[in-house]
């Protein structure tokens, strides 16, 4: 398959890994931000090809994982209302809220539907004017343009029964938070290629300068990731800190400007709580006030909901790259994809789920038994 | 900063035990297995059931009969490569065939929803008949119920089947042992991606067709080529990954797969990439996986390739001794990963 096979070429991957090995003279810690990249690393065993001196830690870039528990509770409450058709991407359905999840709402008779595009939710709203259709807009900058387009069209058509529960998060403020933490061990970042396809990479320049940290925009196939790692190792070994772009087949410096324009028309930047991480200033999107008629948060009057998150799981440290999923006492025993304690075990992009799905064989057998 | 971070870092509560049936309970994954283990097996206690094969083998007056049943709830009812009628016949024949049985008779029970166009019913009945004729089995009994509009989804079909197992043939997943070869009859994911493509309105560059087919003649040819088969499985719901995990769990062994050896059609692979799905978990309706003594593997693969339903057959892996039953895959990169069973349905990812 074109644009896929050449980036999964085992020979090329081994050559890159060998080159990384030759260049590496001391220990380096780097983080891939995006859960999609974590998934690839686990699926292909990219980290097993690397020299032991190069340590990959896994970042908070799983939108499913960082959606606050209060937002899941809101989604559950909205979806449970008899006149609501609740429309979502598939992997949000199993995320545990404080009492229930969307699968259970569906099983109890709620009209919960899975789509691949917010435009499908618009279609439902047009076909069923008697239903209040609510789309669960989750994701990083990657999914924001399509979600913005859906709201913009609904607004233009006067589609009064369409609204959006928005929980969008932004990558650069999260990197800033990680770098500012005294506990930080990360010396370089692989920036998420899909996010940069939309946003470009100019906004990472400030981080590079301020913290003297190499950032390389990376793709999602194993060869992409290895090439990005090689670029990072070269920078670290030479004492450079620059923003570089490995994912040139998709990412330009300025990104997708029409997409950015529609996002700016529909969303405004706001402070945002990340599940497991806490509040991060200016790290999310909400709908602009002039689009309040399509804002499910306002329409359903749930803005003040709060929820308690119990203490056992360590997703906090995992999402920050301070611990590996296998450091958790509950991993693979009290916390599994069937019965997740924390969100990183739910989505396949979550670091815990990726370890559970692909890596248990490497673990102490006592921990494996469920 | 550290204090604020540490204090803010927390995690959600476990859900209480399941209060209701979820769609995932019918996915063929871990939730389905949980239902069987925790509810059905303790309730229905019977040695023939406890084997957990696709069919029960029971002995009646010296004759070994294979007996099985299956329900079909597919949407859409008609799709490239077949319809719910062909599936209902092939599915039950294949469950018998996986026990090595010669399928003889089928029953067909229809649950019809008020308002189903009579033309659709006629087409489905014709498909049932043609599929049965072609496979050489008789539909000898049946039943029809009609439910109110809104209580069904057009048509649900349940078929049961009876076949005869050749004397001396012993097939069961728990017979798999270290060193055995794992054989696959052809490309995976065709049926599931055809259905999903129809549902999502995806248009593929070249047509993806369901692989719906009756496998009993292929099984018969294979059995004639070796008497050292351990078991057969048709990887339907839950796909190849689930079928292999079930075998590994039954036999208490590991199964090691070679990634490059597993055939996936180009258009199926493309659709899976696009939708964020793994073909290892996508349903098949005309493929089988067999565990056989390694000494006979090459000969059996040759025989399979001579059959129209096994043209792309190949050896995809090996049974290994392992401390816990696990399916692993040697990736194209030479690294190893687990091929786990899914909890429920495969969920499309956000990005």
Distinctive features:
heterodimer, A: 370 residues, alpha/beta, Rossmann fold, 2 domains, six-stranded mixed β-sheet, five-stranded parallel β-sheet, 17 helices, 11 strands, globular, disordered C terminus, B: 351 residues, alpha+beta, 60s Ribosomal Protein L30, Chain: A, Phosphoribosyl-aminoimidazole Synthetase, Chain A, domain 2, seven-stranded mixed β-sheet, five-stranded mixed β-sheet, 10 helices, 32% helix
Give a structural overview.
Chain A contains 17 helices and eleven strands. Chain A has helices at 10-23, 35-44, 46-49, 63-66, 69-79, 102-107, 118-127, 144-157, 171-180, 193-199, 205-211, 222-238, 257-266, 296-299, 315-320, 351-359, 365-368, and strands spanning 28-34, 54-61, 84-88, 111-114, 132-139, 162-169, 188-192, 215-218, 243-245, 267-274, 278-287. Chain A has a six-stranded mixed β-sheet, sandwiched between helices. With 351 residues, chain B is of the alpha+beta class. Helix content of chain B is 32%, strand content 24%. Chain B has ten helices and 14 strands. In chain B, helix 4 (84-97) runs parallel beside helix 7. The two termini of chain B are 31 Å apart. The model of chain B is unreliable at 1-16 (pLDDT under 50). At the A-B interface, helix 1, helix 2, helix 3, helix 6 and helix 15 of A face helix 1, helix 2, helix 9 and strand 14 of B.
What is the number of beta strands of chain B?
14
- Please tell me the total number of domains of chain A: 2
Write the CATH homologous superfamily of the largest domain in chain A. Answer: HypD, alpha/beta domain 2
CATH architecture of the largest domain in chain B: Alpha-Beta Complex
Overall pLDDT metric of chain A: 90
Biggest sheet of chain B, open or closed, and with what strands and sense? 7 strands, mixed
Largest interface: A-B, 84 and 50 residues
